[in-house]
Design goal:
The chain is an alpha/beta fold. It folds into 2 domains: 159 residues, D-Maltodextrin-Binding Protein, domain 2; 109 residues, Periplasmic binding protein-like II (D-Maltodextrin-Binding Protein, domain 2, 3-Layer(aba) Sandwich). The protein has 8 helices and 12 strands. Strands 1, 4, 5, 6, 7, 8, 9, 10, 11 and 12 form a 10-stranded mixed beta sheet that branches. The longest helix has 13 residues. The N terminus and C terminus are likely disordered.
C-alpha cells in the first residue's frame, strides 16, 4: 500500500543488525547463522525505525489501496499511525501468490491492514469489522433480487469471481450456466473494477461480489445502483459461507505491536467506521465465529476476498 520505498530500502540495506546473519567460514563449510524470528535466511533487512509504521500493501487494488494512497485501507493506516505518533511507510507487493511471504514474513513491512480473522499464516487482531458478499445491479433494471430464491435470479446474466463462496449456492440452484466466472487473481492489466465495469456496460445484469468491492465501485458508477447483502449460506454448505470477520495482522510472535494496534482499533472505531462509510464499504458488527468451523483457505494465495 504505498509510498516511495525503493530509495529508503536500498539505503537501509547497508545497516544490518548483528543478530540477523553472521559471516560464514566457507573453508569450514559453515552456514549463515540465522534467527528464525528475524526474516528469511541470508537476506539483509531494514533496521526498524520506531517512528515509522511499516504497512504491507498492494499498489493497485482499490478500494483497499493504491500507490497514490487513495484506498480505505490507506486511510485506516494513516489514522492508526497518527494515533500512535508515527509516520506511515509502505511496502508494495501485488496481493496474490506469495504476498505474505514476500512482505510481512520477509520483514519488509510489519502490518497488514486487513485479512480474514484467524488467518493461520499470521497473528490477527480482534476483528474490527465484518462484511459479506453483495448483489449489485442497476436501479433502473426493474430487477428485485434480495435472496437466493428471488425469481429474477433465474433470468439474469450473472458475473462472479470463480470459486468464491457465492458459486456454492448458484451451483446448488443450477444457476452456474447463467453465470460468467471471472478469475480469482485478476489479470493485472485489468482494473479491480472490471466486473462492475461489465455490469455498467450491459455485459452483465447482476454482479455477485465481495462487499467492499461491490459497494465501492457501485458508489462510483455513473448511474444509480442497488447493493444488497446476499443471504448467509453457511447453514446449507460450509463452503458457501458469505460473511467474514476482518482483522489487522502482524507476524506471528509480534504480540506487543498487535496489542498497541488493537488499542487504536478500539479507541478509533467510530473514525474507522466513518472511513468505510465514506467509501461505500458494507460493514457489520463482528459476530463470534464457532471454533473449528470452516477456514478461509488463503495460504500463499493471500488475496483479499473478491
Amino acid at each position: 500500500m504505498f509510498i516511495k520505498f525503493g530509495s529508503i530500502f536500498a539505503a537501509a540495506l547497508l545497516s544490518i543488525t548483528t543478530n540477523v546473519c553472521v559471516a560464514a567460514d566457507e573453508s569450514k563449510g559453515e552456514d549463515l547463522g540465522f534467527n528464525m524470528n528475524m526474516g528469511r535466511k541470508g537476506e539483509p533487512m531494514l533496521v526498524e525505525d520506531p517512528s515509522v509504521l511499516r504497512i504491507c500493501a498492494d499498489k493497485d487494488n482499490l478500494p483497499y489501496s493504491n500507490e497514490k494512497q487513495e484506498g480505505f485501507e490507506n486511510k485506516i493506516a494513516e489514522l492508526i499511525a497518527k494515533d500512535l505518533g508515527k509516520k506511515v511507510q509502505y511496502q508494495f507487493w501485488y496481493d496474490r501468490i506469495g504476498y505474505i511471504r514476500n512482505t510481512l514474513n520477509a520483514h519488509r513491512c510489519d502490518v497488514l491492514i486487513s485479512t480474514v480473522a484467524g488467518n493461520d499464516m499470521v497473528l490477527t487482531s480482534a476483528p474490527y469489522y465484518r462484511s459479506g458478499y453483495v448483489f449489485v445491479y442497476k436501479k433502473d433494471s426493474g430487477l428485485d433480487i434480495s435472496d437466493w430464491n428471488s425469481p429474477d435470479l433465474r433470468k439474469v446474466r450473472i458475473g462472479l469471481i470463480g470459486e468464491t463462496p457465492p458459486s456454492r449456492p448458484l451451483a446448488d440452484l443450477g444457476l452456474l450456466d447463467n453465470s460468467r466466472p471471472y478469475r480469482l487473481m485478476r489479470d493485472l492489466n485489468q482494473p479491480p473494477s472490471m466486473i462492475i465495469d461489465d455490469l455498467i456496460k450491459g455485459d452483465l445484469d447482476l454482479a455477485i461480489v465481495w462487499g467492499p468491492i461491490g459497494g465501492y465501485f457501485a458508489k462510483k458508477a455513473p448511474m444509480p445502483m442497488v447493493v444488497r447483502q446476499v443471504p448467509e449460506y453457511e447453514a446449507v454448505s460450509a463452503h458457501g459461507k458469505e460473511f467474514w470477520n476482518i482483522s489487522v495482522a502482524v507476524r506471528k510472535g509480534d504480540k506487543e505491536r498487535l496489542a498497541m494496534i488493537e488499542e487504536v482499533l478500539k479507541r478509533r472505531k467510530a473514525d474507522i467506521d466513518k472511513i468505510m462509510d465514506d467509501y461505500g464499504i458494507p460493514h457489520f458488527p463482528v459476530v463470534q465465529e464457532k471454533k473449528g468451523g470452516v477456514k478461509e483457505k488463503r495460504g500463499e494465495v493471500d488475496i483479499h476476498l473478491q
